[in-house]
Amino acid sequence: MSPLTLAMLFSMISCGLIFSLWPGLDLWVTSQFYDPATGFSGERSAFVIALYRGIPMMSKAIILGLFIAMFAYAFQRGAQGLKRRIQVGYLITALVLGPGLLIDVLLKDFWGRARPAKVAEFGGSAVFTPALVPAKQCDNNCSFVSGHASAGFYAVSLGFLGGAAARRRWTLIGFALGGIAGYGRIAQGGHFLSDVLFSFFATWFAAWFAWVIFRRLGWLTEPTTEKN
Question: What sequence ranges are listed for the domain Phosphatidic acid phosphatase type 2/haloperoxidase (predicted)?
């Protein structure tokens, strides 16, 4: 297991312990964006609203772009064409496994965690529950984890097409992009901090799992002599 994978595993376990031992951290962070008289500050921010509306359109553009690329490379012959088809196939697989199945289908629809704006502490009627505790405070499209943030975190998958340095670099880039989207959702009362962080881990490990599969099948190879 590579140093980056170990670091990600350690970070995920650490976050799990922190939010399990101090679940109130989520409430405290969210409270910084909430005023009982005016509601959540993000609902009055043009930048945050633009992010919220723009990210779904960006996600659709990414999906469309990937399938257009796959169609275009289908007509490219030789080893280079095969390489490009495999790379695009990997990106599609990482997208389907992470933001698609794991996040939007499994976690968001079955974890049952109420969004911040719906819990009693912020004017709602639902009960606040810790991040890692399955609940029944929401029927579908729930708070855990953030789908908007995963659209930015998905950039980490690009790193798995390169060597170890590329994976480290794109992990940071993806974290930054998803973090911006996550900030907006926290400011809107749409997600807790833990929803955003675990969205990052879910997206990263889904991309890693897809990469492992493609490596085992011999479809992806390490482009350099760097350690994995």
Answer: 88-211
